[in-house]
Amino acid sequence: MLAKRIIPCLDVKDGRVVKGTNFLNLKDAGDPVEIASLYDKEGADELTFLDITASHENRNIILDVVKKTAEQVFMPLTVGGGIRGIDDIRRLLTAGADKVSINTAAVKEPEFITKASRRFGSQCIVIAIDAKKIQGNSEAQKWEVYINGGRIPTGLDAISWARTIEKKGAGEILLTSMDFDGTKNGFDIELNRTISEMVNIPVIASGGAGKVEHFYDVFTKGKADAALAASIFHYREISIQSVKEYLIRNGIKTRIYK
Amino acid sequence: MIVIVDYGMGNLRSVEKAFERFGFPVKVTDNPSEVIHAEKLVLPGVGAFRDAMDGLRQRGLIEPVKNSIRSGKPFLGICLGLQLLFSKGYEDGEHEGLNIISGKVVRFDFPENKTNGRLKIPHMGWNQISFMKKRIPILSNVPNNVYMYFVHSYYVCPDDESVIATKTEYGVCFTSMIWYKNIYATQFHPEKSQEFGLTLLKNFGNL
């Protein structure tokens, strides 16, 4: 049976990891390659780099980071952030990324999803959805899609957008709850369950992980296929290993790697 | 020299780096003559079946790959490189494969399950491989039921079941690796499967 995946995410800016550098025994705690290697040893199932480099001149630095990581770490690597066109994807994949994660460019031009998945295969096209609850009195909960790193609301309904991106050829959805992100109060179970039941492609839950129990909840009640977290792994609050041990003790299929 | 065939389908760097890590001389090429003269051939690839066959055809690589396999030199297919060995693929219509192994490549097709929902496609992530044969040379020092990394929506159905080296459970019990004489091919990605995936590649290099 397929194992549930635990995916640490690194925020990379100008080639350096920008948050969570509380790593012991690292020569250079801001070096994404060294941290990637550490997560590899700890049994991460995949790695995600989110490139938050702002300046255009420094956009190529991530390619070098990906190249060096792919030389050291033999596990799936996803890179997101600032992907605008087919050429950006090609460069990242050539550097050694296995998947790319796209948000804003997909919302602005949904056909881009189709073009990208036809060109490179849908398995490497992850569409990231940043979703925020719409406050209202209606029976069914709704969420709105945001772009530009959560700064701009789009008016798109997250559920119908998830269906659209599946039809357009996305291979996976990276679903971040803006309401729960950073709270450490757990994943947005309702959001994840709703989207995961609606589509037939894997959903990676993101935003809100604070305790091992949260991972259990998002895999059972939330129906997620994978769970992504950044700060709790960065700040060494929880190890990947302890998440996996907890999941296995509670009957969730996951991969222990030593 | 291990030669990795580049026919425009996906990231070949990880495969190359894995062999380099163990000190094997390795080259990525789309040159038919280098493919013909390879001591060992690796056919990786992700993407669509037809695009892959077109990619091989346009570069004049179909006969060189087939000849290398027929000559008995060690061959390793990875993911699409496994599927292409088969007679026919059914991704967007029916397409001829390399026809080295008799059988077909079909899509996962799962019915709606009211209690648990439907299994997702692609089959993406870590799953276990169960050995169907003893002493598979490239699985030396790899434990039975080990997790390997998969990303695919199609799987192979060989006519002759004796070529099946490992099987994996995902809604159906599908063939996750074949071994027939000098031909090894995996549905999973050893180059993405950490320690034991690397062990497999090292074993291949040592054949």
TrEMBL record, chain A:
<dbReference type="InterPro" id="IPR050064">
    <property type="entry name" value="IGPS_HisA/HisF"/>
</dbReference>
<comment type="subunit">
    <text>Heterodimer of HisH and HisF.</text>
</comment>
<keyword id="KW-0368">Histidine biosynthesis</keyword>
<dbReference type="GO" id="GO:0005737">
    <property type="term" value="C:cytoplasm"/>
</dbReference>
<comment type="similarity">
    <text>Belongs to the HisA/HisF family.</text>
</comment>
<dbReference type="InterPro" id="IPR006062">
    <property type="entry name" value="His_biosynth"/>
</dbReference>
<keyword id="KW-0963">Cytoplasm</keyword>
<dbReference type="InterPro" id="IPR013785">
    <property type="entry name" value="Aldolase_TIM"/>
</dbReference>
<comment type="pathway">
    <text>Amino-acid biosynthesis; L-histidine biosynthesis; L-histidine from 5-phospho-alpha-D-ribose 1-diphosphate: step 5/9.</text>
</comment>
<keyword id="KW-0028">Amino-acid biosynthesis</keyword>
<dbReference type="InterPro" id="IPR004651">
    <property type="entry name" value="HisF"/>
</dbReference>
<keyword id="KW-0456">Lyase</keyword>
<dbReference type="Pfam" id="PF00977">
    <property type="entry name" value="His_biosynth"/>
</dbReference>
<comment type="function">
    <text>IGPS catalyzes the conversion of PRFAR and glutamine to IGP, AICAR and glutamate. The HisF subunit catalyzes the cyclization activity that produces IGP and AICAR from PRFAR using the ammonia provided by the HisH subunit.</text>
</comment>
<dbReference type="GO" id="GO:0016829">
    <property type="term" value="F:lyase activity"/>
</dbReference>
<dbReference type="GO" id="GO:0000107">
    <property type="term" value="F:imidazoleglycerol-phosphate synthase activity"/>
</dbReference>
<feature type="active site">
    <location>
        <position position="130"/>
    </location>
</feature>
<protein>
    <recommendedName>
        <fullName>Imidazole glycerol phosphate synthase subunit HisF</fullName>
        <ecNumber>4.3.2.10</ecNumber>
    </recommendedName>
</protein>
<dbReference type="InterPro" id="IPR011060">
    <property type="entry name" value="RibuloseP-bd_barrel"/>
</dbReference>
<dbReference type="GO" id="GO:0000105">
    <property type="term" value="P:L-histidine biosynthetic process"/>
</dbReference>
<feature type="active site">
    <location>
        <position position="11"/>
    </location>
</feature>
Automatic annotation (TrEMBL), chain B:
<dbReference type="InterPro" id="IPR017926">
    <property type="entry name" value="GATASE"/>
</dbReference>
<feature type="active site">
    <location>
        <position position="189"/>
    </location>
</feature>
<feature type="active site" description="Nucleophile">
    <location>
        <position position="79"/>
    </location>
</feature>
<keyword id="KW-0378">Hydrolase</keyword>
<comment type="function">
    <text>IGPS catalyzes the conversion of PRFAR and glutamine to IGP, AICAR and glutamate. The HisH subunit catalyzes the hydrolysis of glutamine to glutamate and ammonia as part of the synthesis of IGP and AICAR. The resulting ammonia molecule is channeled to the active site of HisF.</text>
</comment>
<comment type="subunit">
    <text>Heterodimer of HisH and HisF.</text>
</comment>
<dbReference type="GO" id="GO:0004359">
    <property type="term" value="F:glutaminase activity"/>
</dbReference>
<keyword id="KW-0456">Lyase</keyword>
<keyword id="KW-0963">Cytoplasm</keyword>
<dbReference type="GO" id="GO:0016829">
    <property type="term" value="F:lyase activity"/>
</dbReference>
<dbReference type="InterPro" id="IPR010139">
    <property type="entry name" value="Imidazole-glycPsynth_HisH"/>
</dbReference>
<dbReference type="GO" id="GO:0000107">
    <property type="term" value="F:imidazoleglycerol-phosphate synthase activity"/>
</dbReference>
<protein>
    <recommendedName>
        <fullName>Imidazole glycerol phosphate synthase subunit HisH</fullName>
        <ecNumber>4.3.2.10</ecNumber>
        <ecNumber>3.5.1.2</ecNumber>
    </recommendedName>
</protein>
<feature type="domain" description="Glutamine amidotransferase">
    <location>
        <begin position="3"/>
        <end position="204"/>
    </location>
</feature>
<dbReference type="GO" id="GO:0000105">
    <property type="term" value="P:L-histidine biosynthetic process"/>
</dbReference>
<comment type="pathway">
    <text>Amino-acid biosynthesis; L-histidine biosynthesis; L-histidine from 5-phospho-alpha-D-ribose 1-diphosphate: step 5/9.</text>
</comment>
<dbReference type="Pfam" id="PF00117">
    <property type="entry name" value="GATase"/>
</dbReference>
<keyword id="KW-0315">Glutamine amidotransferase</keyword>
<feature type="active site">
    <location>
        <position position="191"/>
    </location>
</feature>
<keyword id="KW-0368">Histidine biosynthesis</keyword>
<dbReference type="InterPro" id="IPR029062">
    <property type="entry name" value="Class_I_gatase-like"/>
</dbReference>
<dbReference type="GO" id="GO:0005737">
    <property type="term" value="C:cytoplasm"/>
</dbReference>
